[in-house]
Amino acid sequence: MAEDQKVDMDWCFSQPKIELHAHLNGSIRNSTLLELAKVLGENNVIDFADVEDVILKDDRSLVETFKLFDLIHILTTDHATVTRITKEVVEDFASENIVYLELRTTPKKNEAIGMTKRSYMEAVIKGLRAVDSVDVSLVPFDEDSITSLVSPSINCLEKDKRRKIYVRLLLSIDRRETTEAAMETVLLALAMKKMGVVGIDLSGNPIVGEWSSFLPPLTFAKEQGLCITLHCGEVYNPKEVHDMLDFQPQRIGHAICLGDEEWKKLKSYSIPVEICLTSNVRTGCVPFINDHHFVDLYKANHPIVLCTDDTGVFSTSLSREYLLAASTFGLDRAEMVKLAADAIEFVFADDGVKNALRQIFTSAKFGALESSDCVAKTCSSRIHLRLQFMDVNCNEVSALRYLLDRSSDLVGGVFCTVSNRSESCAREFNVKQVDFSSFIP
Ligand SMILES: [Zn+2]
């Protein structure tokens, strides 16, 4: 592999990435867990000394991993904590250049403190609104410019310096839940569609619960336009795997314990698989990373997306997962860029968001232009130069998409510098909202 194609941690970190399989509770910072555990220890709810080591440890055994999950369950039972961890988790993902995040969580009830599934999710939304290190876009693309969760106090210049992360929510049905409880989650997801909820996940202990009991609510969810992803094949259960695949969810997670017949079916349906390398090895589902089914699916050109599952519990990050995949399976930068960008096709967001993501990946690929409408207003010659650069180095359509997305009243300037051929491309991309009259040459 050529030296300039080698993948290292800095490179993985710098690349735009898409995270589609992340559990809120599994992604909590260790420092936050420690702080919450200390408080519960002081209140004699838990023995802090008993859990401190497990929280601080990076390389947890399977037993310790489950001990941590149990602890998280105790620590995250009030609205304020749910809000706090949501804010922190989104900020952490954004800090390593995740540009689109689908965060999943199981809406919980806690009658003792008046928590309902609805109020739990409202606490999650509150956390998203509290994010201040990055702009969070939670709504359909068309409404984004009006209702993006951007502080109104941010002026134009500040806004341009800020990064943006698209966040969508998946409500998880826990396999311990009854059909009725699962249906309640689906109805909640439907009621919260305008707040960024796009789908339903089925998760939890894979040896608990029957697929048949989740089928009615999941079928209803699908009929109502929610997207579905299922934790599938975490344990050997061919009947369930066949039934899950025949349901044809939009994606599945893990897909580890599949026999030949199930592999054939998975590939024939071409259902995208969320691959969580570290999680699969740490939980012992895949004994050795080199034997991971990533290789088989990758070579078969099956749709896959690298994900983290639980960054906190498994002490990983999406950048680390990228590095692990590249170093274990010998992928170079170009292959990793393609793998990352392919994930756009599997997100549960609308086409507007997918187009925006395509622009982000295109611009990263071709030199990460840092165009901004503020800069453009004050320095049209700089924009001119940039366009020429784009014109030479990548196709004009991508260049226009990129610029139009960031341009409001400067697009006249863009038109001054590009050919008639590009002008027709611009029309194609809906620039009707652009106020050409305000452009001053
Ligand atoms: Zn998972």
Automatic annotation (TrEMBL):
Reactions it catalyzes: N(6)-methyl-AMP + H2O + H(+) = IMP + methylamine
Cofactors: Zn(2+)
Species name: Aristolochia fimbriata
Key word Iron-sulfur present: no
GO MF annotation terms: adenosine deaminase activity; metal ion binding
Identification of the protein by name: Adenosine deaminase domain-containing protein
GO biological process: adenosine catabolic process; inosine biosynthetic process; nucleotide metabolic process
Pfam families: A_deaminase
PANTHER family (alphabetical): ADENOSINE DEAMINASE, ADENOSINE DEAMINASE-LIKE PROTEIN
SUPFAM superfamilies: Metallo-dependent hydrolases
Similarity field: Belongs to the metallo-dependent hydrolases superfamily. Adenosine and AMP deaminases family.
Alphabetized CDD domains for the sequence: ADA_AMPD
Keyword list, A-Z: Hydrolase, Metal-binding, Nucleotide metabolism, Zinc
InterPro entries: A_deaminase_dom, Ado/ade_deaminase, Metal_Hydrolase
Domain Adenosine deaminase span(s) in chain numbering: 16-359
